[in-house]
Every structure is written in C-alpha cells, then in structure tokens.
Task: inverse folding
C-alpha cells in the first residue's frame, strides 16, 4: 500500500465541522464520498486539523492508504464530483509512516472582523459594529507571545495531556476591509482562537485592561475568558510541514 496526502480548501458554512460524525454533514464525509465514487472502493481518511462547524480553511490535509496508483490528473476528476464549497488542491504520495496530524510542525489561523456593514463579508467575517482601539488589541496580541500555558482559552472537557502551546505569530493586521487576528502556533486547543479573539475584543472596547487580560491568562481558568465569537470569521490558512516531510 502507498500513503497519500490530500490537500483541501473549503468554505465551512454548510458543514458540521471537519471530522466525520454520525448523521452529520462534514468535510471528511464529502471527501470520502468523492473518493469512493471515483475509485469504486472505500477510503479511510485521517485528518490533520479539526475545524469546528462553520469554520473555513484555505489549507487542510488528509492522509490515506491505498493500493490504487493516484496521480495529479485525478484532482480534476475529484473536483468534478465533490461539492462546490470544497476543492481538492493537491494529492501527493508520501512515506508510509508520515502522519498528516502528527507530522505538522505548525498551524496558522486568521480571524476576520469588519466594523462597517458589508454584505460581501457576512458569511466569512464577524460583523462587530463597535469602536475598537487597535493599539490595545495589538498590545494584547503581543502579550500572548510571552506565555505558553493557555488553559484559560480551552473549552472544557478537552482530552489533552497539557495546555501548552508555542505561539510564533500573534498580531492584529488590516486585510481586505477587515481587521484580522493572525496567529501561528505549534498546536491549538479546542476553541482557542475564537476565545482569544473574544477576550481581546473586550480589551479593544475598553471593557478590560491589559492587566486584567494578563490575569485571565495566568488564572488558567476558562470561566474567566470569553468564547462568544462566531465560527464563520475563522479560517485555517496554513498547515506547515518540515521540508520534504510530505
């Protein structure tokens, strides 16, 4: 058998998340269905980065094992079959022991906010019609680079060994009529990016001081943070692998 990495991008609006779930419409289910339709056999996909219902991705990966010889020409065939809000971008044969989740060195997300009504952004960014102090938002984002324990920004009942994340990029930028939180880390906790954004927005509105924000991080208590930003503003933009790792 050979192992393949399959790269996808998708608009998550109509899906209950990335990973397959019973009686739910997911990205994995749609990709598996397209593969089965094309190659007339079942496929068991393993995902790189789980995204929640409504979250989008510019890049995400599956891996799978098969005896079938798959080439680049099959990308066209798969995209002709698969739903219009999912695209297969690449298929690459890799070493038999390469795991698309565990081999990833980092993942990068962007959360998009817009403050003036714009019908062309409503399903891809969070409409937040309030005055924000961008300098305070940037101060809060910079503080995240000095911490590694993000227990306060993980949803409850998460089955992980620890809550440590090494954040490499944490910044607020302006991009395509949006204010965007851009964050890159070796790993992310469940609900982490949306919680960081929701809590920093309190700082940006003057409802929380920088010192109070630091206290929330150091409290290691998710009850002190906020998790109320909607899914549709969030994009997984990149999954990084070591060069020649796939």
Result:
């Amino acid at each position: 058998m050979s192992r393949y990495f399959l790269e996808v991008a998708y608009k998550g609006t109509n899906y209950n998340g990335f990973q397959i779930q019973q009686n739910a419409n997911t990205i994995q289910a749609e990709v598996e269905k397209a593969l089965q339709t094309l190659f007339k056999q079942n496929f068991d996909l393993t995902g790189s980065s789980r995204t929640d219902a409504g979250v989008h991705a510019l890049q995400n990966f599956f891996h799978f094992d098969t005896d079938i010889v798959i080439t680049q020409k099959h990308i066209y065939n798969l995209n002709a079959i698969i739903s219009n809000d999912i695209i297969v971008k690449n298929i690459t044969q890799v070493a038999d022991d390469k795991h698309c989740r565990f081999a990833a060195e980092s993942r990068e997300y962007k959360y998009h906010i817009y403050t003036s009504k714009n019908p062309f952004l409503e399903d891809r960014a969070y409409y937040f019609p309030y005055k924000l102090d961008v300098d305070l938002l940037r101060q809060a984002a910079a503080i995240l680079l000095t911490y590694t324990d993000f227990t306060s920004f993980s949803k409850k009942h998460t089955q992980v060994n620890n809550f440590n994340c090494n954040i490499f990029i944490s910044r607020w930028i302006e991009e395509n009529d949006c204010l965007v939180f851009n964050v890159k880390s070796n790993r992310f906790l469940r609900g982490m990016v949306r919680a960081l954004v929701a809590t920093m927005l309190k700082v940006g509105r003057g409802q929380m001081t920088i010192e109070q924000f630091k206290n929330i991080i150091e409290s290691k208590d998710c009850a002190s943070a906020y998790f109320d930003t909607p899914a549709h503003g969030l994009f997984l933009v990149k999954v990084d692998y070591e060069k020649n790792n796939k």
